[in-house]
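Budget justification aside, the reviewers requested a transparent look at the raw inputs and outputs of the sequence design task funded under Objective 1. We therefore reproduce one unedited record. The lines immediately below are the structure tokens for a 298-residue chain.
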């Protein structure tokens, strides 16, 4: 049995119509081949000229493949993350690790990728996008610059190996779909120290929690992880989705908070000393002083 959503604009799952069954059978055969070869439950698949992110699930009866079509990032001007936060993310001289964190399914990757592409369009240069597997269409000419997109295949070294290659490629800007391990966390901070802009995502209930998680990961690989974070991180943006009522309809709108790290000696000192709890006060002071807390425009 095959089901499909989005057919004729209908978001609900429904049985696939007969005219699609042959294509679905071909796509399933390709999925089975890749899954058997890699034994990785998540992978990237091209079918015709359309790319998909595939997830394999072992149900009690069969192997089920879910395919999600990749898409292009929305223009940065449509992110609704607030003018001050967006302005900070688009500063021409921004360098270091920029972490967009939050809970699951709040648009972290969409925000990070949109800002990454916008910077390439405006400022030019070579950008490298690394994901496992790719979720959006990023590769190709982007305004004044160009983006190369690679899959951080775990069987080929994953994020750490692609990160190292990116450092040697001449890419000024790097987009990492997610920081998942200590090596990648350390290398991302080092790239920031060396003058690269690295944009990535992570989990956390606040900017401070997001930073703590990166520190915990880096600590598994780096003895002096706190020093590395203090010197390598530029900004931490936390994003969530709030429900607002617009013309009688309930809609989701992003809300953000941002912690400036680079250039703020007080914040950097607390990170070096491992005093992450004290960063909440710094966050509140930054929010009050510069109105970094932003609610989306309705």
């Amino acid at each position: 049995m095959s089901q499909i959503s989005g057919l004729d604009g209908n978001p609900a799952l429904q049985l696939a119509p007969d005219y699609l069954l042959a294509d679905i059978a071909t796509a399933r055969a390709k999925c089975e081949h890749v899954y058997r070869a890699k034994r990785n439950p998540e992978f990237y698949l091209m079918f015709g000229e359309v790319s998909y992110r595939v997830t394999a699930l072992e149900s009690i009866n069969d192997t089920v493949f879910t395919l999600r079509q990749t898409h292009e990032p929305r223009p940065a001007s449509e992110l609704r993350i607030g003018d001050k936060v967006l302005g900070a993310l688009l500063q021409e001289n921004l360098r270091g690790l920029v972490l967009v964190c939050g809970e699951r399914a709040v648009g972290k990757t969409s925000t990070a990728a949109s800002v990454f592409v916008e910077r390439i369009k405006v400022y030019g240069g070579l950008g490298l996008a690394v994901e496992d597997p790719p979720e959006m269409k990023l590769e190709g000419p982007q305004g004044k610059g160009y983006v190369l997109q690679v899959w951080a295949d775990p069987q080929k070294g994953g994020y750490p190996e692609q990160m190292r290659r990116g450092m040697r490629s001449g890419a000024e800007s790097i987009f990492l779909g997610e920081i998942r391990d200590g090596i990648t966390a350390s290398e991302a901070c080092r790239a920031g120290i060396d003058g690269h802009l690295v944009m990535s995502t992570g989990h956390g209930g606040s900017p401070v929690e997001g930073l703590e998680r990166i520190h915990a990961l880096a600590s598994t690989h780096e003895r002096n992880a706190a020093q590395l974070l203090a010197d390598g991180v530029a900004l931490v943006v936390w994003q969530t989705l709030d429900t607002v009522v617009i013309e009688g309809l309930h809609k989701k709108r992003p809300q953000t908070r941002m912690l400036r790290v680079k250039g703020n000696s007080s914040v950097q000192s607390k990170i070096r000393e491992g005093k992450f709890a004290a960063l909440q006060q710094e966050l509140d002071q930054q929010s009050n002083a510069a109105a970094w807390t932003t609610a989306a425009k309705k």
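The CA atoms of residues 14 and 40 lie 27 Å apart. Residues 291-298 have pLDDT under 50 and may be disordered. Computational costs for records of this kind are itemized in the attached budget.
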